[in-house]
Structures are given as C-alpha cells and as structure tokens.
Specification:
It is a single chain. The protein has 2 domains: 32 residues, no CATH class; 129 residues, Umud Fragment, subunit A (Ribbon). β5 and β6 form a beta hairpin. The chain has 2 helices and 11 strands. By secondary structure, it is α+β, with helices and mostly antiparallel strands.
C-alpha cells in the first residue's frame, strides 16, 4: 500500500512539473540509456533502452533511420516504433490497407503531410532477421512505406516504455 501511495505521489509530482521533468529526461538521455519521442508516432514518450536483443511482437525498438527516410524532422537520427510483425509473419496489402497474419495495420497514405509521394512498403513473408514496425499514429512513417520498409533485427535495441 505504501509503494502505491508513493507511486501516486511521484506521478502527481511529474504531472505538475512536466516541462522540468522532460528537460531532466533530455539531459539524462545524453548520459543514461533513456530516449524520448518528440512526435505522435508512438504513444509512450519516454523509454529506457535495453540492450536485450530478445525482440518479440508488441515490443518497442530503437533503431537508426535510413538516410532515405522521409521526415519533417531530418535532425532525428534514431526512431522508436512498435514491432507488429516478426520473421515468418505474412504481410499482405489490399487496396493500400496492410494486414499481418490477417490483422489490419491500417492504410498506407499516398502522400506525406509535406506533400511528398510515398511508395508502398514490402509485402510477403517477413524473412528471418527482419521486423515489421508500426507507429500509434495513422501518420506514422513505418513499415507500411518503402522509405522505412522491414527493419534489420541486427540493428535494433529494445526500448522499454516508461511513460
């Protein structure tokens, strides 16, 4: 019970001091294994970076962006996304709607918010060593688009959501 009360007090303090808290997390990110997101691409905003390579469906991962990735934030070199497809999963596209093993992952858009043309990402059976990633937002640049594609598992680390 005491732990629960302490946790509630901490959360309330964080809510009152969001800006200061986020600045502290930003500073800590340079020295400690934390990252945070600045876009609406994924719902959790603060992550602890674990070098555990045991990646499963539903996990969040951190990886370096490809230079070709279309983004309105070109200074961001790393991306956090949620894994929604692993090796052996079947990715299908039907009228720009993506499915993994029959479950909808949403529609791919024709143009980015900046008006740039977007090519449809890969479909078929995800090969060994690769992952399909997805963002929480319908505007997320993720594996539905060729600019992101499937992510090489060798180049990722696990990102554990904190907040």
């Amino acid at each position: 019970m005491r732990q629960k009360l302490f946790l509630i007090k901490c959360i309330n303090m964080i809510k009152r001091c969001k800006v200061k808290f986020l600045i502290c997390i930003l500073i800590m990110g340079f020295f400690l294994p934390f990252r945070f997101t600045v876009t609406n691409s994924v719902t959790p905003r603060i992550f602890y970076i674990s070098h555990n390579k045991d990646i499963k469906n539903g996990d969040y991962i951190l990886f370096k962006r490809n230079q070709e990735n279309i983004s309105n934030l070109p200074f961001i070199k790393e991306t956090i996304k949620q894994v929604t497809g692993i090796a052996g999963d079947k990715v299908e596209v039907n009228k720009k709607e993506f499915f993994i093993n029959g479950q909808s992952m949403g529609f791919a858009k024709i143009h980015s918010k900046q008006g740039k043309a977007l090519a449809i990402g890969p479909s078929g059976i995800i090969p060994p060593g690769f992952l399909f990633v997805h963002g929480s937002s319908s505007n997320s640049l993720d594996s539905r688009y060729a600019a992101m594609g499937w992510i090489n598992e060798a180049n990722v680390v696990r990102a554990i959501p904190l907040w």
